Amino acid sequence: MTADNHRHSFAKTSSTYENGRSVISTPKQVLQGHPVGSRSNTTLCIGCGMVLHETNIMFAYPCRCADSVEWDVPRVYCYDCAPDKISSPTLGTTEVLVGGRLGTIAFPTPRNQQLCLTELATRALSPPVEGSAL
Ligand SMILES: [Zn+2]
């Protein structure tokens, strides 16, 4: 599939909700700046355990259930461990494989910061209608 096909299938199935209005967006736009990991300055490659820091190249596997407006980023990979496709897509879940660099996002009220996804490019996408049920 081409990048245009990815965008098209994503646009049909994804929207974010704010004040009851929906906005169509691409995974790249939605996930830019999305926090990853639980620590403020490092995260681990799920493949080899390598410690990843801000500015490191990383690949991430964000997903979103059809009934949720929140994205989750359960897996982060280093450059060497990144898969080139979504090997077992889950029905009812939008899954994306993106590559980019780790950045830092600061949260003013709790006065903390967390690593986030930046400079993203989409490598693979599985819309909710693809895959098998768990
Ligand atoms: Zn790795």
Task: Summarize, please.
The protein is built from two helices and eight strands. With 134 residues, it is mainly beta.
How does this model look, in words?
The strands form 3 sheets. Strands 6-5-7-8 form a 4-stranded antiparallel sheet. It has 2 helices and 8 strands. The chain has one domain (27-126). The chain has 134 residues and is mainly β. Mean pLDDT is 85; it is low at 1-18. 12% of the residues lie in helices and 43% in strands. Strand 3 and strand 4 form a beta hairpin. The radius of gyration is 15 Å and the shape is globular. It binds zinc ion (ZN). Residues 45, 47-48, 50, 77-78, 80-81 line the site of zinc ion (ZN).
Number of DSSP helices? 2
Based on DSSP secondary structure assignment, what is the total number of beta strands? 8
Task: Identify the overall geometry.
Answer: globular
What do the pLDDT scores average to?
85
Strand content: 35-45%
Biggest pleated-sheet summary: 4 strands, antiparallel
Structural class category = mainly beta
CA-atom Rg in angstroms: 15 Å
The helix content, as a percent range, equals 10-25%
Give start-end ranges of low-pLDDT stretches: 1-18
The end-to-end distance, rounded to whole angstroms, is 25 Å
Q: Which strand order do you get reading across the main beta sheet?
A: 6-5-7-8
Number of domains as seen in the coordinates: 1
Bound molecules: zinc ion
What string gives the helices and strands in order? HEEHEEEEEE
